[in-house]
What we know:
2 copies of one chain form a homodimer. With 215 residues, the first copy, chain A, is of the alpha/beta class. The first copy, chain A, contains 9 helices and 9 strands. Chain A has helices at residues 8-26, 34-41, 45-52, 67-78, 93-101, 137-144, 158-167, 195-207, 209-212; strands at residues 31-32, 65-66, 84-89, 109-116, 125-126, 129-133, 148-151, 172-175, 189-192.
Amino acid sequence: MTKQEVSPSVIRRLPRYYRFLGDLNAQGKERVSSNELSQALGLTASQIRQDLNCFGGFGQQGYGYHVAALRTEIGKILGVEHRRRAIVIGMGNLGRAIANHVSFQNCGCELIGLFDSNPFVAGRDLEGMPIHHTDTLDGFCHMEHPELAVLCLPEDAAPAIAQRLRTLGIRAFWNFSHADLHLDNTACAVENVYLDDSLLTLAYGLSHLGTEDRP
Amino acid sequence: MTKQEVSPSVIRRLPRYYRFLGDLNAQGKERVSSNELSQALGLTASQIRQDLNCFGGFGQQGYGYHVAALRTEIGKILGVEHRRRAIVIGMGNLGRAIANHVSFQNCGCELIGLFDSNPFVAGRDLEGMPIHHTDTLDGFCHMEHPELAVLCLPEDAAPAIAQRLRTLGIRAFWNFSHADLHLDNTACAVENVYLDDSLLTLAYGLSHLGTEDRP
DNA sequence: TAGATTGTTAATCGATTAACAATC
DNA sequence: TAGATTGTTAATCGATTAACAATC
């Protein structure tokens, strides 16, 4: 579908475009120019046009972009219409929050299983969804064929589970543990969310406010 | 403290260095070379030396880096020894998970208050910590002077609260809402964690696996 | 000393911005 | 048509990588 090879920096901006176009659409706005988008999103108009043109000419000279149409196109690129089957491993605070709070639907995913290795947690449920024991992962995966796993387990447990899930056919990992997943050669997609790192970065920013604000 | 102006890309790598050096230290390793670090972290040795030399010459030619000493130095740069007073606004699933799960201590922060605008939530507590009503924010801030706010509230509520907190002296925002905080001119540090965007990016990656793995 | 590995400068690469002709 | 705004090429900027002299 993609022409050449789109750089990750571009891909990372697509969800923001998609979200903002959704807002505009909800407001009933019909057309938007790269200049308006750039103001709202804090980017340059040039960059936005450059980004969009990685995927095709969605605009029209002299007019701009049709909000609803552009949103649909970006949605297609991101694959929001998919129903990628996802499971969550680790039902601690974070796992529960992710399972409840993240709108998997809106992201082209469908949550089909929750797992925990603690026998006191497995067997219970979360908002009506049963929590399985991690021992049952193999059977579950053979039956249900999930494609994406959300890792909400302790740092030391994560790499081994990831490897195991890899052999069970899972090719995408949303990793909230601190572990650096080393899935080597094997072709999979990994997205790390290192919350502590993010907070540390913010704390650094706070310490250096005087120095760094200049715009 | 910083010499010139260190680029955000460099800062974002520091927490990873810090964390990995902690691991090495725990393993009793005394020295490490930029080459070893690069292998473990998937970077180039050059980049690691370049990064570290933004802050000073922590290494020794022919030897490498002293693990414990380097860790301490990076910790100082990140400010892990601070006790930045932090509050969480919004005690839904996500707010509760963040409050419980993130180690504020390790990140140079201290959690001193929880807030929610729902009167049925305010008045309760989380792991022994009382949840206040957001109406009491002004008084609380004047008394306790928090410096950092974690925003776990709905998209539409976030910008207004952020503005208000700004006037109450808070200069750092860890934003989990989808809102693009526009804190304009005012000098503050913002770190956005857009979970849905992250999942969308991963889903995109999953769709394009065939195309993009090449290394 | 000889070997290793840093600190640092120079070269490369990629991403962002600017400019402008194409065109609606 | 004239005005606006895109698509796209060229210029700039910054970040990563390579190379090597300094030095432990």
